[in-house]
Amino acid sequence: GGGSLRRGVPTLRIGGQLVTTVFDLTLANYGVSREGLPGEWPQGYEDPLPYTPAWQAEITSSRLA
């Protein structure tokens, strides 16, 4: 089932506005953990969180190598 994950994204305040980069958003979306950021991150390929091989195998019925 669908759900949501909370993941930290590095930000800066520029001119009173909170900003980040598309790169940082993409890394968070794909579950690339980064030291010092809070959130739920995959611990390895066998972790069934989104975008890991285990997650993909569950959806596509493919085997993990």
From TrEMBL:
Source organism per UniProt:
mine drainage metagenome
Q: Which SUPFAM superfamilies does this one have? A: Formate dehydrogenase/DMSO reductase, domains 1-3 (SSF53706)
Name the UniProt record assigns to this protein: Nitrate reductase alpha subunit
The organism's taxonomy opens as: unclassified sequences, metagenomes, ecological metagenomes
